[in-house]
Target: Helix-turn-helix
Amino acid sequence: MKTIGQTIKTARLKKGLNIVEAAERAGINRMALTRIENEQVAIIDLSYIEKIVNALGMDPFIVFSSANIKFDQISIENLIKGSRKLTFRGKEVDIDKFIQLMNDHIDAVSNE
Model:
């Protein structure tokens, strides 16, 4: 099972991007991306994951399911810092719906 950081790094390398290029595309600090890829952070702000997956054209379900994460197992409030909405691929998504979709997808993948 890969970690979120390993999954992101694999996608970045497949795109042929170095860490600086990927961070610039995502609009985040290079060191933040480095820490995420190297699993040097205890809690990853969901807005960073959103920016990274958008910049790399990744499927968010793959990112989380690769690490076998279920949102009921982690503190979603810490991840999203109190927000009830997030923007993904230019669309505003209700966080409760996103959580349910993620859990459903992970359950489906786990049953395959």
Notes: The helical segments are 4-14, 19-26, 30-37, 46-56, 60-66, 76-80, 95-110. Residues 57 and 111 are 26 Å apart (CA to CA). The beta strands are 85-88, 91-94.
